Amino acid sequence: MMTFRARILTKRTTFLTWLFIALSSSAYSQPLHWLVQKGKQEFLILGTVHVGSDTLYPLPERIEPYLRESDGLILEADLSKQRVVLPTANKGDFVVNLLSDSQLQQLETAAKTLGIPSSRLKQQPPWVVALTLQQVQFSQLGYEPALGVEKVLTQKAQVNKVPVFGLETMQFQIDLLGQQPDNGKQMLLDTLSEWPYAQSNANCLIQSWKSGDKDNLEQLLQTENMNEEFADQFIYSRNRQWVDTLLTKASFSEGKFLVAVGTLHLVGSDNMISLLEKQGFTVESLQIPTKSGCEFMEP
């Protein structure tokens, strides 16, 4: 679920928009991916996007053969176990009671561009509204969760009888979103302030992901204007926890595994690759990177 921009969006929404990023291409995509080895453990770690279309594929040619021969597919969360409970929220936590008149007008404008009634959105917690706006926008651009990288890899794993594991639960991801201050009010405000640039920036992010443009992707985190607590909750603490799970969970103690996680967990400080390298793993970059040729727009 978590399941979820450009040069470069400067607010925390940038990270969350990745929950819904997709890609278009007629050739092999070249997203960031590495072969990581130590002793009896081997991981092929792939940076993902969580929605897509038929034009997203094929992935790099090494990915599917590796999956078929692997001892398991490791995802942020096992997508086959999707039952979650939404955090409870009272009316005081709804958008209509948290946003000013001018902010509500911004919401109405964004909703109108998508053809969805703002009256319904106003009766939801802000984090739900922010994700809804992004989901609907990407759907209208032709990108769906069913064709996201994790979904496609899960289907291929099931066909080939490869076990699927989750580094965390989907319930954890939902709770993380719902536990933001004011039910994610700032997340929604950032989404609305960036709305005029959302489509252009999404296209640039898509191209950056497709090209494996690590410089662009690293700038994404370096220039974000997010507070330390938010960054640690949504990115860095999860990176550390995931690496600890890879190192300590008995199921992963030996063998070869395809690890597919959101790309922002693989760049910047305390990314999963550097954390594993500090633990004595050898790291080999496998992508053939090119420059994306785009720039991100700021509000």
UniProtKB/TrEMBL annotation:
Domain of life per record: Bacteria
Tell me which Pfam families the record gives.
TraB_PrgY_gumN
Q: Which PANTHER family match?
A: CYTOPLASMIC PROTEIN (PTHR40590:SF1), CYTOPLASMIC PROTEIN-RELATED (PTHR40590)
Protein's UniProt name: TraB/GumN family protein
